[in-house]
Design goal:
This protein is of the alpha/beta class and 219 residues long. It is 40% helix and 16% strand. Strands 1-2-5 form a 3-stranded parallel beta sheet, covered by helices on one side. It has a 3-stranded antiparallel beta sheet with strand order 6-7-8, with helices on both faces. A two-stranded antiparallel ribbon has the order 3-4. The radius of gyration is 17 Å and the shape is globular.
Length: 219
């Protein structure tokens, strides 16, 4: 950042994913404070947990540090587990009803996020997707959250890197269209296609074959 400042660089977006330490979160906060403008977007993916469990490399203190980023987010993209940790809400492993989703979204917006794309929601059997909401005038007047959902077919198993792919496509599309829900739909569809394009016997450690799908897209 010291090298960038004399160059008077401006950024269309700052998008953060996996943070290895609390110190890195501090660096990110400084970067946002330095380069945030009224025009650019701050997209924060609080990567730290999944399937109801905090990743083994993290502890409760890290969750508290990650929560410090929520007020900086123009768009926050937690999965259900991360949202539960950030809001101290009991985790639900089965299908998610509207009340549970609204509670998570409302709490995250109350914590300062401007908009939330909640990933990994399951409102129908065999489907998985996102719920999207923002700190809208409707919410302020009605004192309740309004959200849209978009689901795709759920594939069995674990696919590494799909969260990073989702966040990257979401951010790129958002800068192009400035429509958060439509951008989330594009990102969901892209991830779905990458999983479908990956051979069933592929080594899961190497993630999904997103390159095959990227080649066919016009973003």
């Amino acid at each position: 950042m010291s090298a960038w400042q004399p160059l008077d660089l401006q950024f269309d977006a700052i998008y953060s994913g996996f943070m290895a330490t609390g110190e890195q979160i501090g660096v990110l906060k400084k970067m946002i404070q330095t380069y945030k403008t009224e025009e650019n977007k701050i997209v924060i993916d609080p990567v730290m947990a999944d399937n109801g469990q905090l990743y083994q490399v993290f502890d409760d203190a890290f969750v508290e540090r990650m929560a410090e980023l929520v007020p900086f987010a123009d768009v926050l993209t937690p999965n259900v587990t991360e949202a539960c940790l950030l809001t101290k809400t009991p985790y639900q492993d089965d299908q998610h009803d509207s009340e549970f989703i609204a509670t998570l979204l409302s709490k995250l917006l109350d914590q300062g996020a401007k908009a939330v794309v909640l990933t990994g929601i399951k409102t129908q059997k065999g489907k998985i997707g996102v719920a999207v909401s923002s700190d809208s005038e409707y919410r302020q007047k009605q004192n309740k959250v309004d959200f849209q959902t978009y689901l795709a077919e759920e594939f069995p198993g674990t696919f590494h890197g799909t969260g990073d792919i989702f966040g990257s496509v979401l951010t790129a599309q958002l800068l192009k269209s400035d429509n958060l829900f439509e951008s989330a739909k594009v990102a969901v569809d892209f991830v779905w296609e990458t999983i479908k394009a990956t051979p069933i016997d592929a080594d899961r450690r190497f993630g999904v074959d997103f390159e095959q799908v990227l080649d066919s897209k016009q973003f």
